[in-house]
Amino acid sequence: MPSQSADLQLSPQDSPIPDIDSDIYRFGSFEPVSEAEDSIISTSRSPLFNLLLNTFSSLASNFRSFNQGEKSFPLFIFAIGAILLGFFTNLLFALFSHPSEKLKSPKPKLTKINMKSESLYSSIINMDKKDLILITTMLIGASTFIFRKFILSPRINEINPPENSSKKPTVSHPSPSESSKPNVERSIPDFMKSNNKNVVIVYGSQTGTAEDLSKRFSRSLQTDFGAQPLVIDPEDFDVESLSRISPNNILILMLSTTGEGEATDNMSTWYKKLISSDDHLEVDFSTLQPPDFQVPSDDELGHDFSFDKELPLKNLTFSAFGLGNTTYEHFNSHIKRVSSRLVSLGATLVGPLGLGDDDDDIDDDFVKWKDSVSPFIAEHIGSSTSSDSSVSYVSDWIITEIDKNSTEFDREKFNRFRFSTIENEEKLPPSEIKVDNKNPWSSKVTDARQLCHPDNERQIIHVEFDINDSSISYTTGDHLAVFPINFDLHVQSLLDILGVDENQVIKAVPNPDSTNSSSFPYSYSTYGNILRHYMDVTSPISQDILKNVLLPNVISQPGKDFLNNLINDKDAYNNLVSKPVTSPGELLNLLISAESESNVSNEQRFVLKMDVLLSMLQRMSPRRYSISSSSLESPKTLSATVVVLKYKNVNGLDRYGVCSNFLNATTDIVMRNKQGVDPSSNKTPFLPKYAIHDKMMSSSYSKNTDLRIPIYVIKSSFKLPNDPSVPVVMVGPGTGLSPLMGFIRERVQMVNSGISNVGPTVLFFGNRHENRDFIYKERLIESFGILSASNPDSKMFTAFSRDDPSKKVYVQDRIYENEEFVYKLIFEMGGNFYICGDAKSMTVDVNKALLDITKRHCGQGLSPTNLIEDLKKSGRYQEDVWF
Ligand SMILES: Cc1cc2nc3c(=O)[nH]c(=O)nc-3n(C[C@H](O)[C@H](O)[C@H](O)COP(=O)(O)O)c2cc1C
Fold this sequence. Notes:
- The strands form six sheets. Strands 1, 2, 3, 4, 5 and 6 form a six-stranded parallel beta sheet that branches. Strands 15-10-19-8-9-16 form a six-stranded antiparallel beta sheet. Strands 22-21-20-23-24 form a five-stranded parallel beta sheet, with helices on both faces.
- The chain has 32 helices and 24 strands.
- The longest helix is centred in the first third of the chain and has 24 residues, at 73-96.
- Helix 30 (819-828) packs across helix 31.
- Flavin mononucleotide (FMN) binds at residues 205-210, 256-261, 264, 323-325, 328, 330-332, 358, 362.
- It is an enzyme of class 1 (oxidoreductase).
């Protein structure tokens, strides 16, 4: 793969690692400075002044490095202790080691002091009481200022543990506004003004849904109401500029909730500034300090408006839609809190607050909200309705075919297998490259193998990534996000409809008239690569995109009729598109067939252009998996355990999960690269076909070429207890075993490293057949051998549901069989309980089992529901589940 070759030459040792030990030595013991420095310092300042200055600067520098995550909390406390110790030792040493001098010397006259030779003692002795009081006050004052965060808000560390932030690499994006100075490039009103926009849509999205809905909403506001919307990522703009948005314009928030009721990563800076509280779920806004909002200039406000410091968002009007899932405890809490906060700062909410539920039909929730809120928005901005709107379709992209031999062609920017949004990233050392969803790291796949018997109904695979050459770090229980490559079937059908050569170089730049402000990572690519790597060519196209993008590009009446039927009749759309999960290529072929059947003339026939196609498709979104390795055991390698998704749709056609099948295809490549054997020679070829698989398996391709896949890590709160002696009871059937495998290996590692008090580790694992899909069998047996030797209460219970057709057993049955043991570990010994896997049936059944056994064993006077509630509140009940 043509990526990162230069970066890979760098070993982690090449990266600038802060020298922690020397920091402590230097600050704590006042290591002598060089002669040159010495002369400058000693001729200009007294030793006491230097001591104070050094102490303050050491305190400040340590605090800065801790705050930026370069230093862990224990190290930081240690360093501070050493500095203060150094300060007082120097002070006491100076006073007590010169008793004779103290006795002998009368107070020297100030005019006689030779600064170069003045001792610390003499500079102290020269002070009168007032000086001492002044200096002591300064020291206390400065320390209070430096540690104000801890003094005023002692729980800040618990929310943002420095351990996590310490793993953050140096950020190479332009940082969000650190001062309240308006930065024109990061100012929403300035950007709106220069682009002539009157609606700004801000999306907070973790996996792309909110981003996609924002773009759809923007297009429909443009087409239906002649609005001039702009879709932005909050990471690129300053929240402080909201106060300057023109009262005649409108802000629309489209925010999804993630984690346990948390803000998405791209909203985290805005969120922290708006709701800077240690308890993000229950906040009394009146006690919060608002962000340092920018003061609008007179010409930014009409004569009816004024700026009010107490209500800095008084001139702001906004609408809001949240994306959430009712199965989560804190349903849509992100949008609810941000909206209430804006209102508390004076902003006005127009239309209903939309609360989309991903557990049901979030698309439907969005469409209903959009239809109800759009007239309010149009009225606020004084826009016309579609009938007299002149706007129809505006492409998001301007696409130009480029001759590879022309001077316009920039080879440096061509076809990088990288999603990077960072300029000149390849010139930076890997340790300085921040890895996140906008900037994943193409990580080397070091292992990929199938875990189930080849005849099993479904395959589960183990994939391992090497993160040694990147700034990625993880802790056990975190999640891995993977960007897949599309399989050939849908890519090829789109290339055929476009009628282009997939290797033709093209330049794709965002259309300045479009509402979409994002761009491809590199502007030069090929038709084939854009469709393979960057776009979602599998998910069905929504009704409003059919209406706003495709319909305006269809000329023939039969073509329009075909589309209008899908746009206006929800049942027709469901039957033809959503239920069969019809891909964009399949749908376009149906349109083309409809025209052919009606004998539409060649001039009238639909012709697909790349810019129209790109405006129709969603961006490729990363797929999220629980990490199945332990960071204690393998900090530089992480693994995922993935079930390969294949099924037949309502019409009996094959449907494939894009990422799981892609990862499955890598098992061949890895096996060939590792063992030099060609595994596909003796088995039926993989379906669906991936070009990368065929290319890397072809005889002309070097076996030494690394297979690299773009990934990043998402922090999770699914964690083992800090105290290793706490018992853990874990339930994880199927791939639910994934994060629990990481937990088990972590505890094995603890035992192996000599920790003698590792508490009981109990696993309930289940699958269909013991001899076909008992994944990680040998590893589990080995692990529980070690764990039970260290603690006899460490046990593994298995349930294989289809081995005995007369009696199906599931994990919850094993829990009932061992209910006393489970109750004792959780409620009598204060253990943690973990569930991982399918959120619908399995989680419900296991929760019922937990409640039942609690009822039976808790005894009179105790409420089983309260006990379970307490378990949840104290963080001892944790779920990592998927839908
Ligand atoms: C790991 C994870 C955590 C989530 N946590 C919550 C939550 O606490 N509350 C909620 O209402 N929805 C929660 N959701 C549901 C998402 O908000 C919902 O699926 C949304 O459509 C995702 O939008 P996005 O793709 O723009 O990030 C969570 C989803 C995931 C994957």
